[in-house]
Design a protein that fits this description.
This protein is of the alpha+beta class. It has 2 domains: 156 residues, Beta Polymerase, domain 2; 142 residues, Four Helix Bundle (Hemerythrin (Met), subunit A) (Up-down Bundle). The chain is built from 13 helices and 6 strands. The chain has a 4-stranded mixed sheet, with helices on both faces. Strands 3-4 form a two-stranded antiparallel sheet. Strand 3 and strand 4 form a beta hairpin. Helix 7 packs antiparallel against helix 8, helix 7 runs antiparallel to helix 11 and helix 7 packs antiparallel against helix 12.
């Protein structure tokens, strides 16, 4: 059973009754779900990930005082800690005093501030460039099982994805990295028989390509260890999973290097085609570098457009 499913089942069997029986006076101000850190909030959990922080548990999100007082918060925490210690064969973690960073009673403002730096999730245009997309994912992932007040739902909707000019700046910079590392530097490193440098160039190309693919899908890219997993779920360009994997897991001997050069060009051509489909480039070149500058020219805000093209990389 996936952690998100386990959390929802645990809530509806025990948590909902707890709120209805003991907290009916504040229930309408509460949101409940599983959101935030941990592979289970992304649906990426498996048997291996159960070796730490895996339990039947959920988040109880509450607004600031005076809407829900410190006394009510304490009572909620105590009630949550007294829920069954085992559920569906899984034991709950022993966290003192109650709840924890991932589960239990959490002030909405504290949670949002921990992910965005602002208690209400109001992010300035410049700040969008410096907040980790993983943190933005943690603010918007998972599932809310109940939210009558709608406050955290409203904030999550606001953080759903990057402003378009920020997306385009990130896209332009990472396309340029793809061009430099993959279409240009990889071949030069191979020609010099600098195999370590060649592999570093491949790593740079693959990392930038993953970011570009997520940006073209208008999805946040997760923490590196989940990026390939999440790639499989994207509607566009996910077909390059195995070729990207091959690039970083193969050597740079002559035969493999030739194939890697072909793969790099094939991926680059598909990226260019998708840029054209989204009307983000006017260039007809097969060189990604010209498309990077064409994407940058699409940025509406002149201040963002005139920043160095690598600003968001």
């Amino acid at each position: 059973m996936k952690g998100l499913e386990l959390a929802e089942k645990f809530y509806y069997e025990y948590g909902e009754k707890m709120l209805n029986d003991n907290f009916s006076h504040i229930k309408n101000h509460i949101a409940v779900g599983l959101v935030g850190s941990g592979s289970e909030c992304f649906g990426f959990d498996d048997e291996i990930s159960r070796d730490h922080d895996f339990e039947p548990g959920f988040c109880i999100f509450i607004p600031d005082e005076p809407i829900i007082s410190s006394k009510d918060k304490f009572e909620l925490e105590r009630a949550y800690s007294n829920l069954p210690k085992e559920f569906d064969g899984f034991k709950r973690n022993n966290i003192n005093p109650v709840g924890g960073n991932r589960h239990g009673v959490i002030r909405i403002s504290d949670f949002i501030e921990s992910k965005t730096g602002d208690k209400s999730g109001n992010i300035s245009t410049k700040d969008w460039f410096f907040i980790s997309e993983q943190f933005l994912l943690e603010a918007t992932n998972g599932k809310l099982f109940y939210d009558n007040l709608g406050l955290i739902t409203e904030i999550r909707e606001k953080l759903k994805y990057l402003p378009e000019d920020v997306r385009l700046k990130k896209l332009a910079g990472n396309i340029l990295v793809m061009a430099q590392a993959g279409q240009y530097n990889y071949k030069r490193c191979v020609s010099r028989e600098e195999t370590a440098a060649a592999q570093l160039a491949v790593f740079e190309f693959v990392n930038a390509t993953l970011k570009v693919i997520f940006l073209l899908n208008k999805r946040y890219i997760p923490y590196y260890k989940w990026s390939f997993h999440a790639l499989n779920d994207l509607p566009k360009l996910s077909q390059f999973y195995y070729e990207l994997e091959y690039l970083i897991s193969s050597s740079n001997i002559e035969k493999e290097a030739k194939l890697k050069e072909e793969i790099i060009e094939r991926i680059s051509a598909s990226i260019i085609e998708e840029l054209k489909n989204q009307t983000l480039t006017k260039s007809s070149s097969c060189n990604l570098e010209t498309h990077a500058y064409s994407v940058n020219d699409k940025i509406d805000d002149p201040e963002i457009r005139n920043l160095n093209i690598m600003y968001a990389v």
